[in-house]
Design brief:
alpha+beta, conserved putative lor/sdh protein from methanococcus maripaludis s2 fold, Elongation Factor Tu (Ef-tu), domain 3, seven-stranded antiparallel beta sheet, six-stranded antiparallel barrel, 21% helix, disordered C terminus
Length: 401
């Protein structure tokens, strides 16, 4: 009897043990499952050869014939910049400069073309209908002196008027003589022709046209033997005593040039010599072909060294400093074409690229409109190597979609 009881108790113990082992097996995962890591979160995909570009989905790289590589969240670490040790900084020849406020002067330099001062143009016209009996100056661009004979004009219609004046003059009536003389003047008869008529008592039907100033012939509209109408233009004479410089400059420099600005011009034709003048007009229309503005400068040219058509380089004689602005050395700015950036020294040997908005550049300094503040330290030498390292570490990545 006792043996049966013992056997029954043993069977119950074995059943309980088996049940406990089974339940333990169901509740405890296998060792492989206990050590399997959680699924890693992908932040983005990238091409190892172009780490600065990020993509939001896997696929083929647009740069290389290879698959994009995932970047996982557990691989991202907070980045304070690129760490450069003191020894590496010395080897790279790194220098830093402080962002400071400076007064920058607006630079101005442009090309200009010499042209005729059109205010000096004079026209020699025929005072009455006639025929060119003699032509002394026969070619354009010919230089003439003041008082030089240009052409002789035969004017037969003056004969009748002059004979009538001589008849009135013989009457001895001063009032009638004065009226007759004024009548001749109204026919554009020069005073020296009238005096010659009074001296000789014979009609003066020829007139020699002369240059009223020295210069050169810019237009010749007549030939010997030609018949001309009253007040027909025969010659146009320009002077070289002063010339115009027509300056072409981009619209970004519009604020640099004002009316009355004093300029200095130099020419390859006269090395080492400077020509000084003032801006007389800022022309109102932009050249649509070159997208440039134009200004007109009057230059003294008493020695006639400058000729129409010559090219000169002009700059401002003096520049007035503008308002103080944030500025960094010009060599600090890294210009990629699409953006500009500086390498900011964040301390403890770390350097971080920051995008900035630049302004004018003058005297080796560049204006910074946004991106840094006064007192920041930026790298001014050796920044390109650090910037390349920063790009490889994706300090300033660009996400491509």
């Amino acid at each position: 009897m006792k043996i049966r009881i013992l056997c029954a108790v043993g069977m119950v113990v074995l059943a309980a043990a088996a049940s406990g082992f089974y339940m333990g097996q169901r509740q405890t995962p296998p060792a492989a499952e206990r050590t399997r890591p959680a699924e890693r979160q992908v932040l983005y995909w990238y091409d190892p050869m172009m780490p600065g570009q990020r993509f939001d989905k896997p696929g083929k790289s647009p740069f290389m014939d290879m698959e994009l590589v995932p970047r996982y969240a557990d691989e991202e670490k907070p980045v304070a910049g690129v760490a450069i040790s003191a020894g590496q900084q010395q080897n790279l020849g790194m220098k830093t400069a402080r962002v400071e406020r400076r007064q920058l002067t607006l630079p101005f330099s442009a090309f200009a073309t010499v042209s005729t001062d059109e205010r000096s143009l004079t026209t020699v016209s025929a005072p009455a209908a006639g025929i060119i009996s003699t032509l002394y100056v026969r070619a354009p661009q010919q230089e003439v002196a003041a008082g030089e004979a240009l052409a002789t004009l035969w004017i037969p219609q003056w004969t009748t008027s002059q004979q009538e004046y001589l008849a009135v003059r013989q009457l001895g009536d001063p009032a009638l003589t004065k009226a007759g003389r004024e009548r001749l003047a109204l026919q554009f008869m020069p005073d020296d022709v009238i005096r010659a008529l009074e001296r000789s008592g014979k009609p003066q039907t020829t007139l020699t046209l002369r240059a009223d100033r020295s210069g050169y012939i810019t237009r010749l509209d007549v030939r010997q033997g030609a018949q001309v109408a009253p007040m027909a233009p025969l010659y146009e004479i320009a002077s070289l005593d002063s010339v115009w410089l027509v300056v072409d400059y981009p619209q970004v420099q519009a604020q640099s040039l004002t009316k009355g600005s004093e300029i200095v011009a130099v020419s390859e034709s006269w090395p080492g010599e400077q020509f000084h003048g003032k801006v007389s007009e800022l022309l109102p229309q932009m050249d649509t072909a070159t997208r440039t503005l134009k200004a007109r400068i009057v230059l003294d040219n008493s020695q006639h060294k400058l000729k129409p058509g010559m090219f000169l380089t002009v700059s401002l004689a003096s520049r007035t400093p503008g308002a103080a602005v944030l500025a960094v050395p010009e060599e600090s700015v890294i210009d990629s074409g699409d953006s500009q950036r500086l390498l900011l020294a964040t301390g403890e040997g770390y350097f971080r690229p920051v995008e900035v908005v630049t302004g004018v550049t003058s005297d080796g300094w560049t204006e910074i409109k946004a991106g840094v503040k006064e007192g920041d330290n930026v790298v001014s030498s050796g920044q390109f190597l650090i910037d390349s390292e920063a790009s490889l570490r994706s300090v300033l990545p660009e996400v491509a979609k």
